[in-house]
Amino acid sequence: MNAKPVFWMIWFEDGKADKYPVQTFIEGVAYYADKYGHVPNRAEVPVGIMTTLADVADGMDIKESPTVLSRHIYLTFDPGTNGSKT
User: Fold this and answer.
1) Total domain count for the chain?
2) Closest Cα to residue 24, out of 66, 74, 60?
3) Does residue 54 lie in a domain region?
4) pTM here?
5) What's the domain range around 65?
């Protein structure tokens, strides 16, 4: 079985701090879906914001990572992911 490579899109908030993280996440997912033709099913976020996104990221595999910079969200579509939150 040959696995397809997964490419990540980095989305960041450079404007109003009150938009981050929920509105920033929603806008990033919408942009990703418009650009690539499908909704992302995986995200990596900075440590400490995952619980804030729980209501808007239903069905998406979200992981906190210390390597993701503040006010950034990494999004991708991974055909091998079933969409569980971890």
Assistant:
1) 1
2) 74
3) yes
4) 0.85
5) 9-76
Is there a contact between 73 and 24 (Cβ–Cβ < 8 Å)? Answer: yes
The verdict on residue 25 lying in a domain is yes
Please state, in angstroms and rounded to a whole number, the distance separating the CA atoms of residues 22 and 55. 9
The pLDDT tens digits for 10-38 are 999 888 778 889 999 999 999 999 999 99
| Beta-bridge partner residues of 63 | 44
d(CA 35, CA 83): 20
Residue 85 lies in a domain: no
Q: What average pLDDT does range 53-82 have in this prediction?
A: 91
**Residue 76 CA: distances (Å) to CA of 16, 36, 37, 62:** 24, 10, 12, 11
H-only helix segments in the chain: 22-36
Q: Which residue has the higher pLDDT, 66 or 59?
A: 66
